[in-house]
Write a structure and sequence with these properties.
Number of helices: 13
Oligomer: single chain
Shape: elongated
Keywords: Catecholamine metabolism, Membrane, Methyltransferase, S-adenosyl-L-methionine, Transferase, Transmembrane, Transmembrane helix
Helix content: 40-55%
Strand order of the largest sheet: 5-4-3-6-7-9-8
Strand content: 15-25%
CATH class of the largest domain: Alpha Beta
Bound molecules: S-adenosylmethionine
Organism: Gonium pectorale (Green alga)
Protein name: catechol O-methyltransferase
CATH superfamily of the largest domain: Vaccinia Virus protein VP39
Pfam families: Methyltransf_3 (PF01596)
Number of strands: 9
Family: Belongs to the class I-like SAM-binding methyltransferase superfamily. Cation-dependent O-methyltransferase family.
Structural class: alpha/beta
Number of domains: 2
Radius of gyration: 30 Å
Length: 376
Amino acid sequence: MEYCSCCSSDEESAKRRAMEDELRDPKNFLEFFLPRPLRLAFFGASAASCLIASVLTAVRLLQSPALELAEGTGPRDLVVNLIGLATFAALFVYDQQQARVRVERRREIREAQIAFGDREVFVNDQGEKMSRLKEVNDDWILRRLERWGRRDGMPFVGPAKGAILQRLMAERRPQLVVEVGTMAGYSALLMAQALPPGGRVVTFEKDLLWVLAAKRFMWQASQGEKNRGLDSRVGDRVDVQWGDARESLPRALRPGVDSIELLFLDGTPKEYLEYLKAAEPFLAPGALVVADNAGVFAAGGLRPYLEYVRGSPDRYSSQLLPCKLEWRDDVDDGMEVSVYLGAGGGGGQAAPGTAAGLEVAATAGPSEAATAAAAP
Ligand SMILES: C[S@@+](CC[C@H](N)C(=O)[O-])C[C@H]1O[C@@H](n2cnc3c(N)ncnc32)[C@H](O)[C@@H]1O
């Protein structure tokens, strides 16, 4: 089953082709200079010319063996042409085999996508059975990243911590969220879903490959019926910035203009305090600062950070929200949530309730919390 674009509009089929992106063969160096049809023609024509030359040399040798042997050119030409024939024929067959492997791999991927519900099977106008990827959107991307995270133990925050983040978003309703540590953009997308109208997430990632991956996921997240006609599509609300947050965060934000209302720290644990110090001049009084892995790294890399926020009552009102480590029900972790009280202290908007004025219930699922947060 292959995707057929003949029955769609140009725009629709271009979009579909882009969505099928991940099924494309990885481009190698040779592919770039010599695409497969050209390559096959070259290998085939070279093998055929070596074959013809071998036959002609053999005939020459048979007709006047004494002369050819005396000059020595006949046997040498024959050997060279036979080696050429064997080499080009082997390359031709190898290339064909590789193409079959790629076709088989694409078939396996398509079947896995059908099994996961990412791909739908349909019958086209000619009565042929075809398949196509379902329209992607933010929920689709989050599901895929969760599957990936669970399978390979990727350090994405995961749905349980994601629900806490979205709940915090619903309570604080931040216009500007800053994140350190984008990776594939899972947590950024969860927070973007829960933004109030007009809000944005600026997220920093030092690894260029992750930056490119996250940007692609954000683009995909903005597709689909759900995002059609929206002024600000969910992936467009996320600004992925490349660079070490310790230097790029103060450079990317405008003093006196950009005011961080929620700061999510999920980079390298031992650098958290440096991220906070870099972001502090931009924190709005009452801003929430959320530090991931405050349970598992409490006695390790996060210690200076935790000592700072817990030991500065004039600046922060801080509490640990216990939760499990992503993908692991058997490992305790936590998120340190600190309310910034302002440089002079006491400027926060923390409401009564808990130590930090937070009523964080992690019981609601991520999208439930997102709906509450995104309500105008
Ligand atoms: C735990 S992962 C982030 C996961 C992501 N927040 C999520 O939940 O989907 C940590 C990421 O932080 C990035 N990182 C580490 N140190 C950084 C720094 N100083 N500046 C920017 N990014 C950093 C790493 O490259 C890695 O991709």
